[in-house]
Write a structure and sequence with these properties.
Elements: E1 5-7, E2 14-15, H1 17-23, E3 32-34, H2 52-63, H3 69-79, E4 92-95, E5 98-102, H4 112-116, H5 119-129, E6 135-141, H6 145-154, E7 160-167, H7 173-180, E8 187-193, H8 196-208, H9 210-218, E9 221-225, H10 231-250, E10 260-265, H11 270-280, E11 285-292, H12 297-304, E12 306-308, H13 329-336, H14 341-354, E13 356-358, H15 361-366, E14 370-374, H16 377-391, H17 397-410, E15 419-423, H18 431-438, H19 447-458, H20 464-471, E16 478-481, H21 485-493
Parallel strand pairs: 5-15, 6-7, 6-9, 7-8, 8-16, 10-11, 10-15, 11-14
Antiparallel strand pairs: 1-2, 1-3, 4-5, 12-13
Helix pairs in contact: 1-5, 2-3, 2-10, 10-11, 16-17, 16-18
The protein binds pyridoxal-5'-phosphate (PLP).
């Protein structure tokens, strides 16, 4: 019997894992969720001896049951290979009283690579299984990290094309350079005059345009999504929490069954939701600590039970967490309501209408393993300075938010339970903020000079992703108005 997926907003939609991955979003606007949480297929003590790829297979086969063993193992083998700069794929590093789970060793040096390295293989396998013969067109809006990771994953993958829209003046210089130098005949990168919300709204509009869908379908295309609303991004993210537990066992930090806490710098709530899924599979996780930057809508939510996006949007030095509507929270709401699709749909309706909703006592109780914290910009920079000063270990700004939240609010309360902090980006990706946090004198330097300085003070080898863009030619220079997105997609498809 296959594990089926249903929508968070209605009870009558049921699809297999491969169909859910192919579609991305449920037709009623909800997100696909598994009908139950499968258990880990091995006793936890066995995790200590398992490689990343073995762990990935053990976890993913429980969720993606309509993939054959052969198919899934092939996807895993091709995803987690030499693209990563360490055979451990996701090393766990002990520094200053916590464990940093480094999720940035993939092709684009942010944690999005953990899932977007495998999603293209899962997607093309799903197309074959479901006899989808149309070319799959991935539409993506990005504030920086998802765009490049999706481009790297889908570049030159047969049967797919990918279009990425980014806010022309809303990404870091390194992020922009990474995207506009992307190779691959099936890739298209477009800057828009507007912000990330405009890009996201534009993409959603293209997705829901039935007339456009019919037209491109007649031309042999279908749309899909590479953002974290796709369950095909969530499932691969469960793996590294299970793998981290195995490393703590192997290193003798934990005995099988002892709990670990996780601390996750959060934006769209995908990464921490994957930890929640891992816990529900039976992995001994104690607290799930959700760390926000100054856009602390989630902190307020976990403190008060009220979600309220009616507030100022703040631009911070951790831009991938600058978000006021965390899409994946919908999946937690659904689970916490006892899988009540009607109740979830009502709350999401309220959010759309008023920008706000309140949990019931029962739902809040069902979320008691979660705790929220936040770090201001000053606290974030102070944490980078503190950890570098104490142990010479350099955090990126996003990881520093989580580290600050843990060390200022939670470390004492957590006693002997080890904390695994998700380290979501290489400091090289945010070199300017990181270096000026360590010493304000760096503020006057050029971006690539800062890269060399960072190498000088950290000794961490400069990642290939950075070396590549130093001299790479710009291949994408289209910039459009935000109401020209449909025309741009049509032009690309006519190519
Ligand atoms: C995307 C991203 C996050 C936020 O992850 P979510 O799954 O959206 O909560 C945090 N840090 C970095 C560096 C990211 O790219």
């Amino acid at each position: 019997m296959d594990l089926m997926y249903n929508s968070t907003r209605s009870t009558d939609i049921q699809v297999t894992a491969s169909q859910a991955i192919l579609k991305g979003l449920a037709p009623d606007g909800g997100l696909f969720v598994p009908e139950l949480f499968p258990a880990l297929p091995v006793p936890v003590e066995d995790l200590a001896g398992m490689s990343y790829q073995e762990t990935a297979y053990a976890v993913m086969k429980q969720f993606l049951t309509d993939y054959t063993e052969d198919e899934l193992k092939r996807c895993i083998r091709r995803a987690y290979d030499g693209k990563f700069d360490t055979p451990q794929i996701a090393p766990l590093v002990s520094a200053g009283g916590a464990y940093y789970l480094e999720l940035f060793h993939g092709a684009t040096i942010a944690f999005k690579d953990m899932a977007l390295s495998i999603l293209p293989y899962l997607m093309t396998t799903a197309a074959k299984k479901n006899h989808e013969t149309k070319e799959i067109v991935i539409l993506t809006a990005t504030s920086g990290d998802t765009g490049k990771a999706a481009l790297a994953g889908f570049a030159d993958v047969p049967g797919t094309r990918i279009v990425v829209f980014y806010p022309k003046n809303g990404v870091s210089p390194i992020q922009e350079k990474q995207m506009v130098t992307q190779k691959g005949a099936n890739t298209c990168v477009i800057g828009i005059h507007g912000n990330f919300d405009d890009a996201q709204a534009g993409v959603k509009k293209l997705f829901s345009d039935k007339r456009l869908e019919a037209e491109i379908s007649a031309e042999g295309f279908c749309f899909s999504s590479a953002n974290s609303i796709n369950i095909g991004r969530l499932v691969p993210q469960i793996v590294y929490y299970v793998y981290a537990y195995g490393r703590l066992l192997a290193d003798g930090v934990l005995k099988a069954g002892d709990p670990m806490n996780v601390v996750v710098p959060t934006g769209n709530f995908g990464n921490i939701l994957a930890a929640f899924y891992a816990k529900n599979m039976g992995l001994p996780i104690g607290k799930l600590i959700c760390a926000s930057n100054e856009n602390k809508v989630l902190y307020d939510f976990f403190e008060t039970g009220v979600y309220d996006r009616n507030r100022e949007f703040i631009l911070t030095s951790s831009p991938s967490m600058d978000i006021l509507i965390s899409s994946n929270l919908e999946r937690l709401i659904y689970h916490a309501s006892g899988r009540d699709a009607a109740k979830n749909a009502a709350l999401m309706g309220e959010l759309a209408r008023t920008g706000r909703y309140a949990l019931t006592e029962e739902m809040a109780a069902a979320m008691r393993d979660f705790a929220g914290g936040y770090a201001t910009e000053e606290q974030t920079f102070a944490e980078i300075r503190r950890v570098y000063g104490q142990c010479g270990y350099v955090l990126d700004t996003h990881t520093a938010v989580a580290s600050s939240v843990y060390h200022t609010g939670f470390a004492q309360k957590c006693g002997d339970v080890p904390a695994v902090i998700a380290s979501t980006a290489s400091p090289y990706k945010f070199a300017r903020s990181v270096m000026t946090a360590i010493d304000p004198r760096y503020a006057g330097m050029e971006d690539f000079a800062l890269i060399d300085e960072l190498y000088g003070i950290s000794g961490i080898r400069i990642p290939r992703a950075i070396e590549e863009i130093r001299t790479a030619p710009v291949l994408h220079d289209t910039v459009i108005e935000k109401d020209e997105m449909e025309a741009a997609v049509r032009r690309f498809l006519a190519r």
